[in-house]
Task: structure prediction
Amino acid sequence: MSQDGPLDGLAGPVRMCVGCRSRAARSVLLRVVVQDGVLVPDHLASLPGRGAWLHRDLQCLDHAERRRAFPRALRVAGPLDVTSVRVELGNDPTSAGTVPGDD
Ligand SMILES: [Zn+2]
Result:
């Protein structure tokens, strides 16, 4: 519970981003959890279970995905579907695809 130590220059609890592995204040990171084998954003950092922390940055998501950091951090069998988190970070692959013409 209270294992957050003080860190130079940062106030409040600090977490490590699973993407770039740098430390940052909780407030600038997004907590993600696994629900039914799918990685989902936990906006309020209130969902039960093990969580992982990630910068709100697609590069960090890509890094974490490539290194399979999520299954490791969350102690689940991978791979995980990160679509929800990717959408959360602003890059929705489904919206960039073909949309049925409607003219
Ligand atoms: Zn990061």
